[in-house]
TrEMBL record:
Entry-linked Gene3D superfamilies: NAD(P)-binding Rossmann-like Domain
Organism: Uliginosibacterium silvisoli
Residue intervals passing through the bilayer: none
One Pfam match: XdhC_C
Protein's recorded name: Xanthine dehydrogenase accessory protein XdhC
Length: 394
């Protein structure tokens, strides 16, 4: 998401090239749907670094130096010829973004900030078309999807490209057979890690030339699913927000003191309120909560509100084991069950880091949050898989 947020500002000054990982096979440094921006002087975000990214930047800048340039597709093998040893294959799509589209990109970013998704349709011969869709609709079509197909012979019908997806899940590659008489054996391949005994008809060279085969990319950009409500704008809270804000995350930062926030990135919403406990119920479903205010009494009130809410992904409370024991005693007296108390993480931060500087605490806490997010994502995937099995059985 970082590159999308940067687009309007960068387009004030120059054209850009949007580089998207459209498909991967085997080991690759970033997943399909990952994007980065390249200008003549800088880059935003990354598709994995190394020589892969160096080649992508060189090709993108060559496009910018041309008067006009059509979208392009590259297939890059991450082996010795590229100076890398991942062993996988990456397909990259390059699209030039003109300065004149800045207002449109401001509107698109507003769509994402409003909690909706954008679906991008890009063909090898034309610029992207963007449409608004609901998050639920985007979730039903996971994965950026790249289709490649041989252009039809005159008077014949070409296979139609298909597939939809978002930038948060692996893409699929669909390859269609060459028409009879075109000199190629039939092949069809779909899915990460799929193999075929026949040659692919996508780009089969690491040359920076665009693919000769026609292709179609579908890519959905969704709002961040990593929602964090953080209470407390003191030194530790500010340090945590500074680290978290570099990720694809939306942060609701709450405090009673409105003079502590200062300038914040666009993915941070500052909420100064005399009733911070009311913000617990306003957080999105499956939110992550962090409580580290200046007041133990407020910490206790917020903790009780979060645990009674129940619908949260993870909850962390700053403090010692002694503070936890005292809070558990008081919360139990309020009728909060032991099972709910067990969902409270206190102390916070990954084990083994004893440094108490705010910046060190922030790194330890953010690492713990990322672990919790991975666990939550894995559990949700299992629940969806179980739901599909039950539906199939019915």
């Amino acid at each position: 998401m970082n590159c999308w947020r940067a687009l309007p500002g960068l387009l004030e000054h120059e054209d850009l090239v949007l580089v998207t990982v459209a498909q991967t096979r085997g080991s690759a440094p970033r997943e399909a749907g990952t994007s980065m921006l390249v200008s003549l002087t800088r880059t935003v975000d990354t598709i994995g670094g190394g020589h892969l990214e160096w080649e992508a930047m060189a090709h993108a800048r060559a496009m910018l130096l041309q008067a006009t340039s059509a979208p392009a597709l590259q297939r890059l093998s991450l082996g010795a010829s590229l100076g890398q040893c991942c062993g996988g294959v990456v397909w990259l799509v390059f699209e030039r973004i003109a300065r004149a589209s800045r207002v449109e990109w401001i509107e698109r970013l507003g769509v994402i900030d409003g909690g909706r998704a954008l679906t991008r349709e890009l063909f090898s011969h034309a610029a992207s078309q963007w449409t608004i869709c609901g998050v639920d609709e985007a979730a039903r079509n996971p994965g950026a999807c790249l289709d490649t197909y041989h252009p039809p012979s005159p008077g014949t019908d070409a296979p139609s490209p298909s597939g939809r997806g978002n930038g948060n899940a692996p893409a699929r590659l669909q390859q269609f057979p060459l028409p009879e008489g075109e000199g190629g054996s039939k092949s069809r391949e779909r899915g990460d890690g799929a193999r075929s005994d026949t040659p692919a008809i996508a780009v089969t060279s690491t040359s920076p030339e665009p693919a000769k085969a026609a292709w179609h990319l579908t890519h959905t950009i969704t709002p961040p699913s990593f929602n964090i409500t953080l209470f407390g704008a003191g030194h530790v809270g500010a340090a945590i927000v500074n680290v978290l804000a570099t990720l694809d995350v939306h942060i609701r930062w709450v405090d009673v003191r409105d003079d502590l926030f200062g300038a914040t990135p666009s993915n941070v919403t500052c909420i100064a309120t005399d009733a911070p406990e009311e913000e617990v119920d306003k957080a999105p479903p499956n939110s992550f909560f962090l409580v580290l205010t200046h007041s133990h009494a407020l910490d206790l009130e917020l903790t009780a509100r979060i645990l009674k809410r129940d619908a949260f992904a993870w909850f962390g409370l700053i403090g010692s084991r002694t503070k936890r024991a005292r809070f558990e005693h008081r919360l139990h007296a309020q009728g909060i069950a032991a099972a709910q108390l067990a969902r409270m993480t206190c102390p916070i931060g990954v084990a083994g880091i004893r440094d108490k500087a705010p910046q060190a605490i922030a790194i330890a806490v953010v690492a713990q949050l990322l672990q919790a997010r991975e666990h939550t994502t894995h559990r949700q995937m299992q629940e969806r898989a179980m739901g599909k099995e039950l539906t199939h059985d019915d």
